[in-house]
Amino acid sequence: MTAPTAGLPGAAEGPKHVALIMDGNGRWAQARGLPRAMGHREGVQALKRTVQAAPSFGVECLTVFGFSTENWRRPAEEVSDLMGLVRSYVASDLNRLAREGVRVRVLGRRTGLPADIAAIVDRAEAQTAHNSRFLLQVAFNYGGQADIVDAAQRHIDKILAGEATGPLDEAALSAGLSTAGGPPVDLIVRTSGEQRLSNFLLWEAAYAEMVFQNVLWPDYGAGPLGEAVEQYRNRDRRFGGLMPQPALATG
Ligand code: IPE
Ligand code: IPE
Ligand code: MG
Q1: Handedness of CA 61, 48, 235, 250 (dihedral sign)
Q2: Contact of 40 with 85, CB cutoff 8 Å
């Protein structure tokens, strides 16, 4: 466990909400001469370890990128492997997550998902809806651009139905995103050494801190998460304002 730095001048507390771009499953498998599917399978183990470890760092919400709107471009066999992992993860872990007080929320478009996956997603959300100890948001068939478009369309539909008046502002658009009502994103982590968002949380990333780690996702867990949290705690978050005055200088 990482030593808390809260109380140091300018040090950020938290993070309460960490978003993870779980990247590098394929490279992990390739490096071992294994099929990519094995990398994805190990990736699920890494996700379990990370969810387990998160509360010990004070993290209250994890948002993980499981499948992007662009991942449909992958070979059909790989897409089908990834859908299969959703089925087995929910089958093996949903009851435990529900018992442990985890609320599961799935971000992204339901249309386009295989019917049984859409049903599994609904069940996972319904079964854990009353939980509040920890929030696990899984972005699946999710794209940041698609989510912003859907939010804008929701606002247009409300105007047409006489339930809202224009103009569209930040609060109204946020309210239509699939992350609406959740905590603000404090930290976005990407594994595997790539340094891009790949269409993840474009709107929500506005003032999030970013950490890029060279570890491949199947090797992730408490250790790397602790290092990312440590980096976050050494950042100054200004939100466009001025740096917080060091406590000693003002006292
Ligand atoms: C991340 O690992 C998992 C998904 C995108 C579903 P990748 O499959 O992207 O692994 P690399 O980037 O090819 O190593
Ligand atoms: C982003 O990773 C999507 C997920 C982690 C689910 P990708 O591997 O799909 O991103 P690119 O193609 O390298 O940008
Ligand atoms: Mg990748």
Answers
A1: positive
A2: yes
Alpha-carbon gap, residue 20 to 5, rounded angstroms:
22
Neighbours of ion ligand 3 (CB under 5 A): 23
Q: Are 69 and 146 in contact (CB under 8 A)?
A: yes
Q: Which residues are catalytic?
A: 23, 71
Tell me the C-alpha distance between 137 and 22, whole Å: 13
Is residue 21 lining ligand 2, measured as CB closer than 6 Å? yes
Residue 121, token pair as written in the block: 């997603």
Q: For position 249, what pLDDT does the model report?
A: 43
Contacts of residue 202, defined as CB under 8 A and 6 or more positions apart, other chains included, come to 144, 145, 147, 148
Domains of the chain, first to last: 17-143+185-233 (3.40.1180.10)
Is the backbone peptide bond immediately before 35 cis, with ω within 30 degrees of 0? Answer: no
Pocket test for ligand 1, best of 25, 68, 78 (most atoms within 8 A of CB): 25
pLDDT-flagged residues of the chain (< 70): 1-12, 244-251
